[in-house]
Design goal:
Layout (H helix, E strand, L loop, with lengths): L12 E4 L5 H8 L3 E3 L9 H7 L5 E4 L7 H6 L5 E4 L9 H6 L3 E3 L6 H16 L2 H9 L20 E5 L3 H13 L3 E5 L6 H7 L1 E3 L2 H7 L2 E4 L13 H4 L7 E4 L8 H9 L5 E4 L10 H5 L3 E3 L8 H18 L21
Parallel strand pairs: 1-2, 1-3, 3-4, 4-5, 6-7, 6-9, 7-8, 9-10, 10-11, 11-12
The chain binds (2R)-2,3-dihydroxypropanoic acid (DGY).
Amino acid sequence: MVGLIIKETVVHKVLVARATFPDIIDRLRGYFEVQDNPEDEVWSPEALSRALQGKAGLIATGSERIDEALLAAHPQLRAVCNMAVGYNNIDVQACTARGIVVTNTPDVLTETTADFGFALMMAAARRIAESEHYLRAGRWTKWRYDMFVGPDVHGATLGILGMGRIGQAIARRGAHGFGMKVIYHNRSRLPEATEAQCGARYVDKATLLREADHLVIVVPYSPSSHHAIGAAELAQMKRTATLTNIARGGVVDDAALAQALRDGRIAAAGLDVFEGEPHVHPHLLEVPNVVLTPHIASASVATRRAMANLAVDNLIAALGCGPDAGRPPTPVNPEVLKR
Ligand code: DGY
């Protein structure tokens, strides 16, 4: 009698830490046993660790801290796929040491995030939020020639700190759309051809601070970029300048910024990210000349879908499934894949 040999396939268990589009969860269910979080509870580290029991893969957002303690408790974990381009919530070195693949979502959010950064900069410069609050409060009783005057954006000097993909996309908007003079500072200078495409000129940090009419911060968070803009840097800026932060909380010293805004040390700011978010420094809430948004720079429907789909593509491939098995499209630590 010929025996029937059934090939055993292991169906991995995976965790999706925060709510996302239901059809994207369905895509994952085609490959894995999925635990998701449709109520979008924000789990404590202990609750996250409990949910991660027995899971080979995790789809995370910037809100989940993936550190050595969590990894040590979950030796079965094989892949952490962040639904964000930034990954300062993940201890990548610890993941690499354990052979865990880490992925992020670059490229798909570049233009959307640059649009938002530009909008926030314009709102700060042209006092859009401040004047809207004034109008809604019923305080607009007569028009005045100098109501809510602010600095121009077109033709001004745009300073960019951090010239990765998003910085370059903001530079292109400034140079080619608004006739701005664009200067930037970055860890390393870009190739000349890229500078020419962006219409941007490399300068040292002191020149950037001194010359920018509108400074946009797009540098990733790391211990070396912690408080890259603090009281000393703000003191070097023009009194008429604006500052926009769409990078990460912690790159700007929020307390020092609130003080500079209160003292009129700079004209205005636009902030989408905060130290310790969703907590916002109380002094920032008190000053009128700052536009505050809740970390939504990449939040267009198409881009949020693209980010979620890319995170799913990464997880499917990282766990050895699908057409790209073993080759996740956007790994942060590709060295793990070569082992
Ligand atoms: C990112 O992708 O890093 C955005 O800040 C959303 O977290």
